[in-house]
Each structure stands twice: as structure tokens, then as C-alpha cells.
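Ligand: zinc ion. Inputs:
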Amino acid sequence: MHIGRSFDGPGHVEATCPCPLAPCGLVDTDDVDEACEQHPPTRCKTIRTGHPADACPGTGRAVVVAMGKTEAAHQAVIDAAAMGESAGTVNFSLFGALDDYRAAVEHEAAERIREDSWSRRDRWGRYENEQREAGQCHGADLIDPEVP
Ligand SMILES: [Zn+2]
Ligand SMILES: [Zn+2]
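Predicted complex:
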């Protein structure tokens, strides 16, 4: 079985725990890290998503690995802000500021992609390869759905 602790596929628990990840980004029950506090059956945690290993969609792991890196970078900022103090003394507004920063970075990335596509239209507003540009804009929308 490939299992996860969130309802809709792999989530932050899988992104930050020490277990090896299956190709779908979930954790294989035959390959848990016993140091993990979430996935070994002996921890008795609620499992909210899963599928048999032979029904694995085989995609998704890269996103979960990336989520883990984002989470680690986020935590590093919190730790730096709390340097020498206990974690509870971090100014609470820092969390909101970090979320805002992330949203701004994602918006910037999406706008770069949209702008790159926009730059290829001719003077009548047409594209040489409409399908390619639609695909590119779809990618930008996945990064940043809030199109102004
Ligand atoms: Zn785990
Ligand atoms: Zn799987």
C-alpha cells in the first residue's frame, strides 16, 4: 500500500517526514522509516489516502520533494528569526509575511511565463502556434490562478 495522511493525496506530512517516497509521493507501507512519527503502523495515525502499490499512478513524487524543500526553507527563516530565543517568541506576523512573499514570488513567475507567451503574438494579436501558447498559459495558471 502507498499511504498518506491527507485526504487528497500526498501533503505536508509526506513532504517533511523521513520516509522514502513512492513514485506517487505517498509512503510505501513496506518501506517506512521507523523514526517517522507519522507512517509506521505502530504509530497508529489516521491514514486518509492510499492505493495498492500495483495501482500506483507513478507520478507526483517530484512535487512532494519540492514541497519538502519549500517547507525546509520556510522553517530556516523562522529559525533564523528566533535565533537565541525559544520558537514561541517569533513575531506572529512573520508567518503571514512569509505567505505573502511566497504568493508574490509565484505571481511573478506566472507573469514571466504569460509575458513570454504574449511577446510572441503578431501585430494582429495572433500566435504562430496557438496550442503551444495555450499550454504555456495553462502552466502559468497552475502556478498562479489569480489572473488580474
Ligand atoms: Zn513518514
Ligand atoms: Zn503510489
